[in-house]
Design brief:
Distance between the termini: 41 Å
Largest sheet: 2 strands, antiparallel
Number of helices: 6
Order of helices and strands: HHHEEHEHEH
Low-confidence stretches: none
Strand order of the largest sheet: 1-2
Mean pLDDT: 84
Structural class: mainly alpha
Number of strands: 4
Shape: extended
Length: 142
Protein backbone atom coordinates (compact mmCIF):
# COMPACT_ATOMS: atom_id res chain seq x y z
CA UNK A 1 0.00 0.00 0.00
CA UNK A 2 1.44 3.35 -1.01
CA UNK A 3 1.60 6.34 1.30
CA UNK A 4 -1.04 8.13 -0.81
CA UNK A 5 -3.52 5.29 -0.16
CA UNK A 6 -3.16 5.41 3.62
CA UNK A 7 -5.72 7.65 5.31
CA UNK A 8 -4.39 8.87 8.61
CA UNK A 9 -6.41 10.74 11.21
CA UNK A 10 -4.84 14.11 10.27
CA UNK A 11 -5.66 13.50 6.57
CA UNK A 12 -9.21 12.52 7.47
CA UNK A 13 -9.71 15.57 9.68
CA UNK A 14 -8.24 17.90 7.05
CA UNK A 15 -10.92 16.73 4.57
CA UNK A 16 -13.89 17.25 6.89
CA UNK A 17 -14.38 20.97 6.12
CA UNK A 18 -14.61 20.20 2.40
CA UNK A 19 -17.12 17.42 3.08
CA UNK A 20 -19.31 19.61 5.28
CA UNK A 21 -19.15 22.57 2.88
CA UNK A 22 -20.92 20.42 0.26
CA UNK A 23 -23.45 19.03 2.73
CA UNK A 24 -26.21 21.59 2.05
CA UNK A 25 -26.23 20.58 -1.65
CA UNK A 26 -26.36 16.90 -0.71
CA UNK A 27 -29.25 17.51 1.67
CA UNK A 28 -31.14 19.52 -0.98
CA UNK A 29 -30.59 16.69 -3.46
CA UNK A 30 -31.86 14.08 -1.02
CA UNK A 31 -34.88 16.25 -0.26
CA UNK A 32 -35.60 16.69 -3.98
CA UNK A 33 -35.54 12.95 -4.60
CA UNK A 34 -37.57 12.12 -1.47
CA UNK A 35 -40.25 14.68 -2.35
CA UNK A 36 -40.81 13.43 -5.90
CA UNK A 37 -44.16 11.89 -6.78
CA UNK A 38 -44.48 8.76 -8.90
CA UNK A 39 -44.86 10.75 -12.13
CA UNK A 40 -41.85 13.06 -11.58
CA UNK A 41 -38.31 12.39 -12.68
CA UNK A 42 -35.29 12.74 -10.44
CA UNK A 43 -31.63 11.79 -10.58
CA UNK A 44 -29.98 10.58 -13.75
CA UNK A 45 -33.09 10.86 -15.93
CA UNK A 46 -33.67 14.47 -14.93
CA UNK A 47 -30.01 15.36 -15.41
CA UNK A 48 -30.01 13.90 -18.92
CA UNK A 49 -33.19 15.81 -19.83
CA UNK A 50 -31.66 19.06 -18.57
CA UNK A 51 -28.41 18.44 -20.45
CA UNK A 52 -30.29 17.67 -23.67
CA UNK A 53 -32.35 20.85 -23.30
CA UNK A 54 -29.53 23.13 -22.18
CA UNK A 55 -26.73 21.80 -24.41
CA UNK A 56 -28.31 19.67 -27.17
CA UNK A 57 -25.23 19.67 -29.40
CA UNK A 58 -22.78 19.06 -26.55
CA UNK A 59 -20.78 15.84 -26.57
CA UNK A 60 -22.51 13.25 -24.40
CA UNK A 61 -20.64 10.08 -25.39
CA UNK A 62 -17.44 9.31 -27.23
CA UNK A 63 -16.58 5.66 -27.67
CA UNK A 64 -14.21 4.00 -30.14
CA UNK A 65 -14.45 6.86 -32.64
CA UNK A 66 -18.21 7.13 -32.22
CA UNK A 67 -19.60 10.42 -30.88
CA UNK A 68 -23.13 11.29 -29.80
CA UNK A 69 -24.54 14.60 -28.64
CA UNK A 70 -26.98 15.03 -25.74
CA UNK A 71 -30.02 15.49 -28.00
CA UNK A 72 -29.42 12.22 -29.85
CA UNK A 73 -28.40 10.31 -26.72
CA UNK A 74 -31.52 11.49 -24.88
CA UNK A 75 -33.73 10.51 -27.83
CA UNK A 76 -32.12 7.05 -27.88
CA UNK A 77 -32.61 6.67 -24.13
CA UNK A 78 -36.25 7.75 -24.48
CA UNK A 79 -36.86 5.06 -27.11
CA UNK A 80 -35.42 2.41 -24.80
CA UNK A 81 -37.46 3.75 -21.85
CA UNK A 82 -40.62 3.67 -23.98
CA UNK A 83 -39.95 0.04 -24.93
CA UNK A 84 -39.31 -0.91 -21.29
CA UNK A 85 -42.47 0.90 -20.13
CA UNK A 86 -44.57 -0.87 -22.79
CA UNK A 87 -42.99 -4.14 -21.61
CA UNK A 88 -44.27 -3.49 -18.09
CA UNK A 89 -41.29 -1.90 -16.34
CA UNK A 90 -42.48 0.34 -13.50
CA UNK A 91 -41.04 2.61 -10.83
CA UNK A 92 -39.23 0.54 -8.20
CA UNK A 93 -38.59 -2.49 -10.43
CA UNK A 94 -35.09 -3.95 -10.41
CA UNK A 95 -33.74 -4.65 -13.90
CA UNK A 96 -30.69 -6.89 -14.24
CA UNK A 97 -28.20 -5.85 -16.94
CA UNK A 98 -25.45 -8.17 -18.12
CA UNK A 99 -23.58 -6.16 -20.75
CA UNK A 100 -19.99 -5.13 -21.31
CA UNK A 101 -18.93 -1.48 -20.98
CA UNK A 102 -20.17 0.31 -24.08
CA UNK A 103 -22.65 3.10 -24.97
CA UNK A 104 -25.58 0.68 -24.98
CA UNK A 105 -24.99 0.02 -21.28
CA UNK A 106 -25.16 3.74 -20.48
CA UNK A 107 -28.32 4.12 -22.56
CA UNK A 108 -30.03 1.20 -20.79
CA UNK A 109 -29.07 2.47 -17.32
CA UNK A 110 -30.35 5.96 -18.17
CA UNK A 111 -33.61 4.56 -19.62
CA UNK A 112 -34.21 2.48 -16.51
CA UNK A 113 -33.51 5.53 -14.35
CA UNK A 114 -36.02 7.60 -16.32
CA UNK A 115 -38.71 5.08 -15.40
CA UNK A 116 -37.75 5.22 -11.73
CA UNK A 117 -36.55 1.64 -11.80
CA UNK A 118 -33.19 0.37 -10.54
CA UNK A 119 -30.34 -1.05 -12.64
CA UNK A 120 -28.59 -4.09 -11.21
CA UNK A 121 -25.32 -4.41 -13.13
CA UNK A 122 -24.09 -7.98 -13.36
CA UNK A 123 -20.45 -8.86 -13.88
CA UNK A 124 -20.07 -10.08 -17.47
CA UNK A 125 -17.26 -12.45 -16.51
CA UNK A 126 -19.50 -14.47 -14.18
CA UNK A 127 -20.74 -17.85 -15.38
CA UNK A 128 -22.73 -20.76 -14.03
CA UNK A 129 -23.56 -20.91 -10.33
CA UNK A 130 -21.84 -17.59 -9.58
CA UNK A 131 -23.98 -15.77 -12.17
CA UNK A 132 -27.12 -17.54 -10.91
CA UNK A 133 -26.27 -16.41 -7.38
CA UNK A 134 -25.85 -12.79 -8.52
CA UNK A 135 -29.17 -12.84 -10.35
CA UNK A 136 -30.96 -14.24 -7.29
CA UNK A 137 -29.17 -11.76 -5.03
CA UNK A 138 -30.42 -8.65 -6.85
CA UNK A 139 -33.98 -10.01 -6.98
CA UNK A 140 -34.52 -8.62 -10.47
CA UNK A 141 -38.05 -7.94 -11.68
CA UNK A 142 -36.89 -8.48 -15.27
Amino acid sequence: MSEAEVITLPKFLSRLPRFFSGLPKRIRGLHLVASQTADQQAGLGLCLEKAAKGNPNGLAIMYEGRAMNYRDFNAWVNRIADYLAKSGTEKGDVIAINMENRPELLACVAAIAKLGAVSALLNTSQRGAVLEHSIRLVQASR
